Amino acid sequence: MQHLVDTDQLSDAQIRQILEDASRFKTRKPAPLLSGKLLITLFFENSTRTRSSFEVAAKRLGADMVHLDPSRSSTKKGETLEDTFANLCAMEPDGVIIRHSENDTPSRLAEMDQVPVINAGAGNYAHPTQALLDLYTLYEWFGEEIEGLRVAIVGDIVNSRVAASDIRLFRRMGIEVSLVAPKPFMPPVSDLPQFERLEDIMDEVDVIISLRAQLERHKKPIFDDYSAYAEHYCITEDRLEDRGIVIMHPGPVMRNIDISDEILEDPRCMVLDQVRNGVYVRMAVLKLLLLDAKEYGSDPLHR
């Protein structure tokens, strides 16, 4: 049984397969490959894009979805998460998609090894399907030869599971990553190049991935308000000028704080392409875990 807690559980061949399947699914409507399969979503944090994307992906492949609202579940009555999960698994779903505020929750459930577990975002450590769809978006724009591509991640990096997953996957694929943020927004330990000013990297990168500013997560105030943050880190026309830099963002975008209105309408901005690609990548992930993984045996990384 294979799970997707983070992308390091995928072999290079599986990553290539996900990218190829996503491209095929985007080109033509697939057969209902997952007809008769049942997936349960368990989202302990709010989600618009990820949850909807998984639902659309599953339905396009013919699977059924059941959504469990944790606020109405027995976890509110004192039941442990593991017991809730075990009871759901007793109903014989084919997979569980979970989002949680704690980093280790998906891995704890995966270790129970009852059904495939897909991490839809956990804590500030991992959001593997977002990293995969970001990688696919880069492949689509730049072509398959992306080794040496220069990507800057800008914003509240220390609190971003997207940044953490992107960094691990991108570096594995030979992409050069640099970080741009005020020091309190930087991860405490990193061997990546770090910059405090956007202006220092504008002529040195091919891609900027902007992140949502999460000032509320910082105990000590860094900026007086979001407009003060935007003065330094918002991606604007004045900053971008005529450079051919691709702009990305995992969403939700805080307009004129993370990215300006004008840049969101600019052809160099891939934000809606990322959302669109997320459906096809998640279709490919579901196909891999629910159908293809059986062909690899229990440990595909060593076959």
Automatic annotation (TrEMBL):
InterPro entries documented for this protein: Asp/Orn_carbamoyltranf_P-bd, Asp/Orn_carbamoylTrfase, Asp/Orn_carbamoylTrfase_sf, Asp_carbamoyltransf, Asp_carbamoyltransf_Asp/Orn-bd
GO cellular component assignments: cytosol
PROSITE patterns: CARBAMOYLTRANSFERASE (PS00097)
GO biological process: 'de novo' pyrimidine nucleobase biosynthetic process; 'de novo' UMP biosynthetic process; amino acid metabolic process
Family note: Belongs to the aspartate/ornithine carbamoyltransferase superfamily. ATCase family.
The protein's role, per its UniProt record: Catalyzes the condensation of carbamoyl phosphate and aspartate to form carbamoyl aspartate and inorganic phosphate, the committed step in the de novo pyrimidine nucleotide biosynthesis pathway.
Classification via NCBIfam families: asp_carb_tr, PRK00856.1
Protein name: Aspartate carbamoyltransferase
Organism: Nitratifractor salsuginis (strain DSM 16511 / JCM 12458 / E9I37-1)
Gene that this polypeptide is encoded by: pyrB
